[in-house]
Amino acid sequence: MPLLILDRDGVINHDSENYIRSLADWQPVKGSVESIARLSRAGFRVVIATNQSGLSRGYFTLDDLEAIHQHLCQLVEEQGGTVTGIFYCPHLPDEGCACRKPGTGLLDAIAAETGESVSGCYFVGDSLKDLQAARARDCQPVLVLTGKGEATLQQLQAGNAALRDPQSVPVYNDLAEFTRAILND
Ligand SMILES: [Mg+2]
Ligand SMILES: [Zn+2]
């Protein structure tokens, strides 16, 4: 079954400059949970790849993060879908880790754990970092306009984004619109 990779903040849930620190902060974007369930039911192995430097900043704990992810997985399961895995980078931007997007460590971990190539799979994100990581591993980057998406689109259109073939990145209003498009309804 093909992999389908999603960023979390700004794609599945509303993002915040103050970070998503607790279950109370975590508010799904309209239609996103249903979309993940539908993609899963349609045969995609849905995997999440998310930068969570707030862990290293001390804004929240691993327990807080796991509570959010359990809640998300449960909501998806209630609609008959499955989240195959959630991969996160806990590091600070200046730590020089391999996993913080635009680095590709999360994608490499997804490939290693699922035993599937990420090449050619959709990677839906709202930030340039997501699109760059996707390109670096030959995923099909997809931009949604929720979260930082509008600002990212302006960067792409201004031609000042460090991204190969920015004009070939498909753009959707949100995860629900992307899902309707690829499931043909
Ligand atoms: Mg994001
Ligand atoms: Zn990292």
Automatic annotation (TrEMBL):
Q: Where in the cell is it found?
A: Cytoplasm
Does the keyword Transferase belong to this entry? no
Gene Ontology CC entries for this record: cytoplasm
What cofactor requirement does the entry state?
A: Zn(2+); Mg(2+)
Instruction: Show which residues form the site (Stabilizes the phosphoryl group).
Output: 50, 101
Q: Does the keyword Disulfide bond apply?
A: no
User: A GO molecular function for this record?
Assistant: D-glycero-beta-D-manno-heptose 1,7-bisphosphate 7-phosphatase activity
UniProt keywords (A-Z) are: Carbohydrate metabolism, Cytoplasm, Hydrolase, Magnesium, Metal-binding, Zinc
Report the transmembrane regions from the record. none
Q: According to the UniProt entry, what is the EC number of this protein?
A: 3.1.3.-
Binding sites annotated in the UniProt record for Zn(2+): 89, 91, 97, 99
Catalytic activity, as annotated: D-glycero-beta-D-manno-heptose 1,7-bisphosphate + H2O = D-glycero-beta-D-manno-heptose 1-phosphate + phosphate
| Binding-site residues for Mg(2+), renumbered to this chain | 7, 9, 126
Could you say which residues form the signal peptide?
Answer: none
Please give the Pfam families that the UniProt record associates with this protein: Hydrolase_like
UniProt GO BP:
carbohydrate metabolic process
Instruction: Note the site residues: Contributes to substrate recognition.
Output: 100
Q: In which pathway does it act?
A: Nucleotide-sugar biosynthesis; ADP-L-glycero-beta-D-manno-heptose biosynthesis; ADP-L-glycero-beta-D-manno-heptose from D-glycero-beta-D-manno-heptose 7-phosphate: step 2/4
> Predominant location of this chain?
cytoplasm
- Report quaternary structure and partners: Monomer.
- Similarity field: Belongs to the gmhB family.
| Name of the molecule in the record | D,D-heptose 1,7-bisphosphate phosphatase
Q: Which organism is it from?
A: Pseudohalioglobus sediminis
Q: Which gene encodes it?
A: gmhB
